[in-house]
Amino acid sequence: MPHSSLLRMLARSFLAGDPTVDQILARTTKTLGRPWRWLRPLAQRYVAAFSDQTRPRRRDVVRFLIRDSGFKRAASKHVHELSVEHWLPGPDQMQPVRAAQMWDLPPLPSVGDLAAWLQLTPGELDWFADLKALGYRKNRPLLRHYHYRILAKRYDSIRLIEAPKHRLKDLQRQILSRILEKVPSHTSVHGFVKGRSIQTFVAPHVGRRIVLRMDLQDFFPSFPGARIQAFFRTAGYPESVADLLGGICTNAVPRDVWNELDFDIDRRQIPEVRALYARPHLPQGAPTSPALANICSYRLDCRLSGLAQSAGAVYTRYADDLAFSGEDEFERRIERFSTHIAAILIEEGFSVNHHKTRVMRQGVRQHLAGLVTNRHVNVMRADFDRLKATLVNCVRDGPERQNRKSHPDFRAHLEGRVAFVEMINPARGRRLRGIFDQIRWP
Fold this sequence. Notes:
Blueprint: H1 4-15, H2 21-32, H3 39-50, H4 58-67, H5 69-77, H6 111-117, H7 122-129, H8 134-137, E1 146-152, E2 158-164, H9 166-178, H10 198-202, E3 210-215, H11 225-234, H12 239-249, H13 270-278, H14 289-296, H15 298-310, E4 313-318, E5 321-326, H16 328-332, H17 334-347, E6 358-361, E7 367-368, E8 371-372, E9 378-379, H18 381-397, H19 410-424, H20 426-436
Antiparallel strand pairs: 1-2, 3-5, 3-6, 4-5, 7-8, 8-9
Helix pairs in contact: 1-2, 1-4, 2-3, 7-12, 11-12, 15-17, 18-20, 19-20
């Protein structure tokens, strides 16, 4: 078996740049000084082994080389001839794939550069990234980076809001604005993307013969920390930097958080939910999570968009809400199509919330994300009536008595809901605005 330095350099040549057979062959040929006949089959086996992943870690590539029988034979046959003729740049170099070269990301080739970019000391950087999961293991809430709030959902399910504390949120916002927002989203994605909205999400499905709505279960916790770190490696950051960036954007929830449940729930669910949140994942509440979820769902969106097109349908996604719609051809295929969608979601690491799956034909109310789509986009009548009643009661009895959920800024909350109706249906929105303007605020 070749010397360990040769293995490391071969692994580096496999990882640098684009992971295509021709690119790998060109780099390994340059590294070894000649085009060995066994290089192309080795590159083909490598691409096949890691084709379903983003850029792997160097240790995984070294392990692949050590275990590859073809490479073992070549190494034993040419043990005295194999040597490194050209040394590739060291690990402290930006090595983005071809697509990432167009993203104009800040170069952060070392841990020191990352710490300076975030205006932290190396010790502070390690503490915020928490790669050793000390915040998970130690029951010291004052040293943790998140506030937690457990919410009950329908069908006895749970949602955990993980709100980062002030300093960590500032770091995440910098990563969002200067790295993540420079990565383009799939054209089918409409949630948390500049220039797109809930309106653009539902617009392609207005007036369609049949609409299929599906929902992803436990959306943000479904993205493990390793997947986030792999994205940063694909963007070109060295492993050490990518690990720290991923650590800042992910979280593992301490076990004692689940002791604070203050509502009734089937206790048999607790171990499963606790295990889901115990591993590093995208926290729902961090400013970086929606953008990272969109980025890491790119292949899923490509597959779903392609399948929809082949079935004569259109596909859009808003966070964990999936929408498909079409005409007669799609209606004939709807049952088989929904089965294929579920299979793709499982392959991509997601699961379907079957309680929220709906097949809506023209004879019933078609609705997506709380908006009616039968003939034109509109707010649901029940939601409009409920908001109108709240506003009228605020005018009559004062807003304090209507703030039943104790919103810290009830005026801003109501004004936001009125503005949403104005955006969707200007005529109805003007009626609500007229009532809102009559409210006497303390």
